[in-house]
Specification:
The chain has 11 helices and 7 strands. Helix 2 runs parallel beside helix 3. Helices cover 38% and strands 25% of the residues. The longest helix is centred in the C-terminal third of the chain and has 15 residues. The protein has a domain of 179 residues: Rossmann fold, CATH 3.40.50. The protein is globular and about 55 Å long. The structure holds S-adenosylmethionine. S-adenosylmethionine binds next to helix 2 and strand 2. The site of S-adenosylmethionine has 22 residues, from helix 2 and strand 2.
């Protein structure tokens, strides 16, 4: 399902995701001539960083959100960046056949629950011996903030929009993810949970993160109720975790997956 991503707002409030992606790109160990697929590329800045490492290769950024892709194409046009392309598409239905040496993804796979299906598409998209490096929200990600939100859902003011069920992101653990990789024909090299704190300025940074990425919650609310929901989650979380310096810490947990394709 496509959510209402706001590319401009995400662009301004995603410096942490960008820093994580930068670190992940460092682990790609690129030779410079690879063909890379970036799944859930968002507004394109991370894809552009990969392109800059590929003087004789190329990267395709794929995203379900038409708005994200339009923003990426406008800011990073192929006339100026000939080794960088963007396409609208669903990572659940990858149409590629042995076209890529490497599949990369940052902060996107937790939006999709059926990872087995994504991995099957990745296997088809990779050339023999192709590699995979993915990082996403993992089991326990931002748990204390979601706990605050889920507690609010038990209250009539908010609960009536959620019919008693809290939204679930696909925050998985390594054991289950390894199994899915193997079933799809990928050999896991490293599958691990990594703790990474996110630190926000108060109040704008914390609210900016919620506003730009909490679509599973925000989509259930009428538009006019969203600002109050965001402010309430932020203020309850801050009240419980007092900040001495105008900044607040959120404990994030990322699931990092490195694998190779068995075929070939
Ligand atoms: C938090 S953003 C991450 C963007 C970028 N990778 C980054 O690191 O900044 C998650 C992106 O995943 C995309 N996404 C969610 N479900 C998807 C799907 N089924 N297929 C392709 N993209 C998807 C969203 O549209 C969104 O742009």
């Amino acid at each position: 399902m496509a959510h209402a991503w706001n590319p401009e707002d995400y662009h301004k409030h995603s410096s942490t995701q960008q820093a994580w992606a930068h670190e992940l790109i460092g682990k790609l160990d690129l030779s410079g001539d690879e063909r890379v697929l970036d799944l859930g590329c968002g507004e394109g800045k991370v894809t552009a960083e990969i392109a800059a490492c590929l003087p004789s290769g190329s990267v395709l950024g794929l995203d379900l959100s038409a708005g994200m892709i339009a923003f990426a194409r406008e800011r990073l046009p192929s006339e100026r960046y000939p080794n960088l392309r963007f396409a609208e598409g669903d990572m659940l239905d990858l149409p590629f056949d042995r076209e890529f040496d490497l599949v990369f993804s940052n902060a996107a796979l937790h939006w999709v629950s059926d990872h087995r299906r994504v991995f099957a598409g990745i296997v088809r998209a990779l050339r023999p011996g192709g590699r995979v490096l993915l990082q996403m929200g993992g089991r326990g990600n931002a748990a204390p903030v979601f706990a605050v939100a889920d507690e609010m859902l038990a209250e009539e003011q908010w609960g009536r929009y959620f019919s008693g069920s809290a939204p679930q992101y696909a925050f998985y653990g390594p054991e289950e993810e390894r199994k899915r990789l193997e079933e799809a024909g990928l050999t896991p090299v490293r599958v691990e949970l990594i703790g990474k704190d996110m630190t926000f300025d108060l109040p704008d940074g914390l609210m900016g993160w919620i506003r730009t990425t909490w679509h599973l919650y925000l989509d259930r609310l009428p538009e006019e109720a969203r600002p109050a929901f965001i402010a309430e989650v932020a203020s309850r979380y801050v009240a419980r975790h007092p900040s001495p310096d105008g900044r607040i810490r959120v404990p994030m947990v990322r699931l990092e997956v490195e694998a190779v394709s068995d075929t070939g």
